[in-house]
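for the recovery benchmark. tokens below, seq after
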């Protein structure tokens, strides 16, 4: 099976490029496309903004229409799906899922599409595996990890920074958003390979993992 994976930033791509083969093996194909931020769903659901800006939700209606047209031309025995991975942030989960599905309802033909939301942020998936964090960061502050509630809206990347970054989130924030982005990419590259994908306490990661496995299972 082939997967087109859409993520909102480069650190998400780096993590998924590592994690997806760990989940589904190497018999299937995938491409992870990263964007420069999440943006917002267009009110008219048309997604007519400048494609060059590469903002995920702004472009999502146009992207899904394009995938629908492309997938409809594939041979019947060639299965493909779009997986949209983005952060929930402080949005209402139920309302946001409804908005995303509304986009899909405007596509004719509609591609096989699934929406996987990291709750609250992508770093929640790393925090679902404390052992992976400790393997790569032996000086991890275990009291910070112990205070974290899985998939909670609490400032997820800041929690991870407080646990592993010298000086914590406050020191990292003082260096600006570019430094934060660089550190997030570093976490993705270093923690992801250490993760046990079959045993992750983040429910949102488990949903993503199990969705991939169920789709692959249909082909086996």
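predicted aa per position
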């Amino acid at each position: 099976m082939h997967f087109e994976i859409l993520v909102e930033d480069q650190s998400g791509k780096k993590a998924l490029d590592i994690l997806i083969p760990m989940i589904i093996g190497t018999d299937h194909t995938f491409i992870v496309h990263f964007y420069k931020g999440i943006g917002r769903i267009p009110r008219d659901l048309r997604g007519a903004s400048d494609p060059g800006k590469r903002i995920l939700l702004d472009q999502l209606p146009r992207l899904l229409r394009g995938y629908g047209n492309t997938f409809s031309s594939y041979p019947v025995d060639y299965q493909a799906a779009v997986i949209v991975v983005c952060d929930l942030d402080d949005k209402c989960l139920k309302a946001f899922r409804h908005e995303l599905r509304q986009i899909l309802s405007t596509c004719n033909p509609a591609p096989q599409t699934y929406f996987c939301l990291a709750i609250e942020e992508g770093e929640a998936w790393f925090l679902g595996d404390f052992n992976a964090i400790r393997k790569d960061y032996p000086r991890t502050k275990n009291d910070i990890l112990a205070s974290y509630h899985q998939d909670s809206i609490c400032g997820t990347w800041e929690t991870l920074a407080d646990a592993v970054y010298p000086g914590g989130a406050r020191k990292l924030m003082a260096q600006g958003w570019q430094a934060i982005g660089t550190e997030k990419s570093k976490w993705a590259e270093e923690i992801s390979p250490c993760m046990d994908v079959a045993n992750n306490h983040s429910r949102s990661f488990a949903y993503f993992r199990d969705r991939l496995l169920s789709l692959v299972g249909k082909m086996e």
